[in-house]
Amino acid sequence: MLDKVDAVADLMADLGRRARAAARRLALCSSTQKDAALRAMADAVEADVDAILAANAADLERARSAGLAGSFMDRLRLDAGRVAAIAGALRDVGALPDPVGAVVAEWERPNGLRISRVRTPLGVVGVVYESRPNVTADAGALCLKAGNAVILRGGSDSAASSAAIYGCLRKGLVAAGLPADAILAVPTSDRAAVGHMLAGLDGSIDVIVPRGGRSLVERVQREARVPVFAHLEGLCHVYVDRAADLGMAVRLVVNSKLRRTGVCGAAETLLVDRAAAATHLAPILAALAEGGCEIRGDADVVDLYPSAVPATEADWRTEYLDAIISVALVDGVEGAIEHIERWSSHHTEAIVTEDSAAAVRFLTGIDSAILLHNASTQFADGGEFGFGGEIGIATGKMHARGPVGVEQLTSFNYRVSGSGQTRP
Amino acid sequence: MLDKVDAVADLMADLGRRARAAARRLALCSSTQKDAALRAMADAVEADVDAILAANAADLERARSAGLAGSFMDRLRLDAGRVAAIAGALRDVGALPDPVGAVVAEWERPNGLRISRVRTPLGVVGVVYESRPNVTADAGALCLKAGNAVILRGGSDSAASSAAIYGCLRKGLVAAGLPADAILAVPTSDRAAVGHMLAGLDGSIDVIVPRGGRSLVERVQREARVPVFAHLEGLCHVYVDRAADLGMAVRLVVNSKLRRTGVCGAAETLLVDRAAAATHLAPILAALAEGGCEIRGDADVVDLYPSAVPATEADWRTEYLDAIISVALVDGVEGAIEHIERWSSHHTEAIVTEDSAAAVRFLTGIDSAILLHNASTQFADGGEFGFGGEIGIATGKMHARGPVGVEQLTSFNYRVSGSGQTRP
C-alpha cells in the first residue's frame, strides 16, 4: 500500500515538473505556432474519427454493463457529428486573437516612466472533469491558446474516448513543434492522483478547474490548496415585472426553463411581480405546463393557479436541472432583488420589463455573474458571449467570473521602461 | 475556556454579518457619498491629531517597556508629519476615479444582444496587519473607495494608535451618511479572532489581505479557506547587461539597493554580465560599499573584487531587507533570466542596458509581477504606478498581481441587454 501511494505521488510529482517546464517554454511560443498546433489537432481528430468512435463505443459498452443512467450515457456518447464539433471547436480556438502579450493598459508617469500592463499565461492549469470526453479537447485547446500547460484528469468512465482525443492533441503539438508536455493526461485512474493535484503538485499547479457535478466541485473546493475556478450550481431566476410585455415574458420564461433543462443557465425559479399576477401569471404557467414543466408555487401562486404544486422552502434553493420550476409572487423589482439576493447562487438572473428604470435597478442591484434584461438565461455561455468557447462558468468573484474563456485563463504583469530614473 | 472560545466565535460571526450587510448597502452608494466620507475622515484625522499622537505615545511606551527593536519602533511611531500624511492619503483616495460601475468592455453580438463587463465591489475584505498604524487608514480608505466593507485586525502593539485612527474613519462614514459598519475593527486581541477570519466567517469574507512579516503571511496562506492577496517577499534582482551605460548602472543599482533597504522593492541580488565584468563590476561594487553595503559575491566576483565576502547558496534565496547584496556574474541576458527564474520571488526585476533587444528579451522572458528597463526596482509601489495608494504588492498570479490598488479590489459582472432574444 505504501509503495502504491509513493508510486502515485512520484508519478504526479514528475507530471508537475514536466508541465512546469513545458509552461515556461510555451509562454514564449508565437501565436502562429499555437494556432498551427490547434489546426493540426483538428486535422488529427478528423483523421482519427473511426478510432475515436471505436474507443467511445468501448466506454459506452462498459457504462451500459455498469447500469449507468441515460443522462450519463448521453453526456458520454460521441457520434460523427459530435466528433466534427470537437474538431470545429479546436479550429475556432485557433482563430481567436492571442491573449498573451496583449497590452491591456498603458500610461506614462510624470517622471517619464512608461508603464504597460500586459497579459501573460497563468502557468499550469489542472482540469478535473467527469464524463464528457469533449472536455479533453476544449480544456486542452483553451489552455494552450492562453499559453498555459494543462494537466487533464478525466473520469474513468470516458477513459478510452478521452485517450483517443488526447492522442490527437499530442499529434498536433508535435506537428507544430511545441513541447508535447504542454498538454498532459494523468496516466492513472488511482483516485489519489486527484488529491495530489488539489495539493498543487509542490507548486507546479497554479489553478484548478473542476468540471462536473456538485460533489466533484465541492470536493475540489474543500480540499484544494491552490486557487480554484469554481463553477458551482446555477440557481438562475427570471423576474417578470409589471411592465413586461406578456408575449415576450412567455417566450423568455419558456426558453429560459425548457430549451435545455440540464445546463447551468437554465432558470430554476420564476418571480412574478404581484402587480402583474392577474394578467401575466396564468398565461406563463400554462405555457410552461404545456411544455411539460412541473410547477411548484408559493401560496399566492397556488391561489391564482390551482394546478400548481405547493412549494416548500427547499424549492427556493434547489437547482432542479429538470423540467420543474418554482414560482413566487414578489413586490416589484425590490421584492425580486430581495428574493434573489437571499436564494441565488449568483450565476445568472434575468428581468423581463419595458421599464428601463426597473431594468437598471435590477442590473445594478444584484450581485450575480450575469444579469440579463429581456433575454433568456440560456445565453449564459462563453460561446454565446463571443468568447470562442469556455472552460466553465465561474460563480466566484476573484479573477474570473462568468464564462471562463481564454482571457480569463491569463494573468498579467507590468513592464516599465525608463531612461535611468531613480526614486527620490 | 469553552465559553471564551464561543464568545470569540460569536463576536466574529456577528462582525461578519454586519460587514456583509454594510457591503450590500455600500455597493449601491454613489461616488459622491464615498468621496465625501473620505474627505470627512481626513478632516477628523487632522482635528484629532493630538489624541492620535497621545495614543501612539502610549503604544510606544508599552513597546519600549517590552524591549522591542528599533526598526519595530520606527514602524510604530507617528509624528505630526506622519499623521498629516495619513490625512493626505485619505484625500488622495477620495480624488481617485470611482472604479465601481466602470464599463471595462462593451460589445454587441450578431443576435443583437449588447453585453457589457462592469466593475463591481468584491464584497467584504479582511485585512490582517501588524504594527504600522497607517495601514488602518490606507486599507479602510481603499476598500471603501472600491465599494467593499472591510474588517480590520491590527497588531496589538499598535492597538491604541489604530483605535484612534479608526475612530476618525467611523466619524467620516457617519458624516457622509454611509453605514458605520462599512469599516469594522476586530474588538478583541484574542488570537483566535484571526483564525475565524481566515476561515471566512461563514462566507462573510471574500478575500484576505495580510500586511506584515513573513510569518504572518505564511500563516495566512497556510490557514486561509478564502482567497488571499498574498504579498510574499520581494527577492528583487538588478541585471547589468554588457550594453549598460556605466554611470546609469551605478546610480540604478545604488538606488535599487540602498534608497530604503527595508521595503519589498529593494534589490537583494545584483547580476552582472560576464562580458561587462572587467569594466562595470568594480565601480558598481565600490559605490555600494561606499554607501555602507556589505557585498557577498560568487567565486568570480570575489576574484575580481577581493573585498567581497564569499556568497553561499543561501544568499541567492535571502531577502536581506538590509544593507547587504549578493552578486553573481551571469552569461548575458539568458544567464540572468536563468538565475532569476530559479531564485526570484517573482516580485520585481530590472535590467540596465542600452540594447533594446536585450531589454525586450528580459521583459518578456521573466514571469515576475514587475519588470523594469533602466529604472530602479524601488519604483515597485502603487503610488509610483499612479494607483493612488496600495494595500500591498501581490506576488500571486490570480486576480491581482503587483501593486493592489482600488481597481484590484474590485470584481466585475456582465450585463446583457436584449429585446426578447431566446436561444435557439
From TrEMBL, chains A, B:
* Catalytic EC class: oxidoreductase
Aldehyde dehydrogenase domain segment(s): 17-287
Which Gene Ontology terms of cellular component type are present?
cytoplasm
Q: Which PROSITE patterns does this UniProt record tie to the protein?
A: PROA
- List the signal peptide residues: none
The protein's location, in the record's own words, is: Cytoplasm
Any GO BP annotation: L-proline biosynthetic process
Its main localization is cytoplasm
User: Which reaction(s) does its UniProt entry say it catalyses?
Assistant: L-glutamate 5-semialdehyde + phosphate + NADP(+) = L-glutamyl 5-phosphate + NADPH + H(+)
Q: What GO MF terms are annotated?
A: glutamate-5-semialdehyde dehydrogenase activity; NADP binding
One Pfam annotation, family name?
A: Aldedh
The catalytic activity of this protein is classed by the Enzyme Commission as: 1.2.1.41
Role of this protein: Catalyzes the NADPH-dependent reduction of L-glutamate 5-phosphate into L-glutamate 5-semialdehyde and phosphate. The product spontaneously undergoes cyclization to form 1-pyrroline-5-carboxylate.
Q: Which PANTHER family match?
A: DELTA-1-PYRROLINE-5-CARBOXYLATE SYNTHASE, GLUTAMATE SEMIALDEHYDE DEHYDROGENASE
In the record, the note on similarity to other proteins reads: Belongs to the gamma-glutamyl phosphate reductase family.
Name this polypeptide is given:
Gamma-glutamyl phosphate reductase
* Taxonomic path: Bacteria, Pseudomonadati, Pseudomonadota, Alphaproteobacteria, Hyphomicrobiales
